[in-house]
Amino acid sequence: MEWITVLNYPIYLAIFICIYGCLAIGLNIQWGYAGLFNAGVAGFFAIGAYTSAILTSPWAEGRLGGFDMPFAVGLVGAMLLAGLLAWPIGKICLRFQSDYLAIVTIGVAEGIRLVARSEDWLTNSARGISGIPRPFGDLPYGKAQLVYLGITALILLIAYVLVERQAVSPWGRMMRAIRDNESAAQAMGKDVPYRRLEAFILGSALMGLAGALYVHLARTITPDAIDPMLVTFLVWIMVILGGSGNNRGVLLGAIIVWIIWSMSEIVTDQLPSEYALKAKYGRMFLIGLLLQIVLRFRPEGLLPERLRKDPRDQDRPADEKDTTPTVAGKGVN
């Protein structure tokens, strides 16, 4: 159909927004709820991408794979392996605090990227893995893209609903208490190390899921696709811009940042070749400028976390109400 051809690019854009939405929600669990400064998002994205590629791709000589399993098995395997590897990493890294945790997770992500670039038997090194199937991939291109958009949107919706339900449950209130005042939460009998590790594993599993969704869209995966600038940096901007601690906010951030990132690429591609490469750096400047403007005028993000009010204020005169929110602002423990 002609209308599908016209909508090819918007559909492609929407698929990427759904993929980055999963990444943003995963990071929001770690940072927005638990205050964990994970700067290694690209590492868990890569684990999910390569796991699904190995499980679902056809046999190829010289590397692990050839299992030719269904798409759903690849997604589940990506989440499980990303979560399983997050456990030992979290056990070691979560003992560090704030910027030290960020430094360690950056090192872990770079280690994963170097393994992907150098291990022929596992990832086919820089050549990567190709021939990865996509659900309903035998349909015409436009229809196949539309179906895949429906799949990714449904997965994102399920992830959003499940995480949102957890956020408003006692689990979510406990995680915010740990984030805002770890010592007070520990004094109340909460197992802080275990709960922080729990949030780290859950967020990492969602990052692995996003990697699996990406690899079935691209049908190939190479180490260049897990560039920290395109994964970790952009996802952090989405979360900060939209409003950490609020899943709707981080999804709004994913929409805004990815639209600007994609549209600016279209503009730079129209420039003469001698200027196009230089102009691409302006895209990063544009995103950074947008972030600076938001941080200057709305440091809590476009859709900030909804703070709980003290119910006792309803029975007090206006001049006697406690204006201090029950859940304080962000703090890195």
Question: Could you explain the architecture of this structure?
Answer:
This protein has helices spanning 2-6, 8-33, 41-56, 71-93, 98-118, 120-123, 141-167, 170-180, 182-187, 192-218, 229-242, 247-269, 273-297, and strands at 129-130, 220-221. The chain has 333 residues and is an all-alpha fold. The chain has a domain at 10-225. It has a two-stranded antiparallel ribbon with strand order 1-2. Helix 2 (8-33) runs antiparallel to helix 10 and helix 3 crosses helix 10. Mean pLDDT is 86; it is low at 322-333.
Side-by-side strand order of the widest sheet? 1-2
Q: Could you say which structural class the secondary elements and strand pairing correspond to?
A: mainly alpha
**Total number of helices:** 13
SSE order in H/E notation?
HHHHHHEHHHHEHHH
Look at the structure and give the mean pLDDT: 86
> Termini distance?
54 Å
How many runs of DSSP E, i.e. beta strands?
A: 2
Largest sheet composition: 2 strands, antiparallel
Tell me the β content: under 5%
Taking pLDDT < 50 over at least 5 consecutive residues as the criterion, the unreliable ranges are 322-333
Question: In percent, how helical is the residue content?
Answer: 55-70%
Approximate shape: globular
- Radius of gyration (CA) equals 21 Å
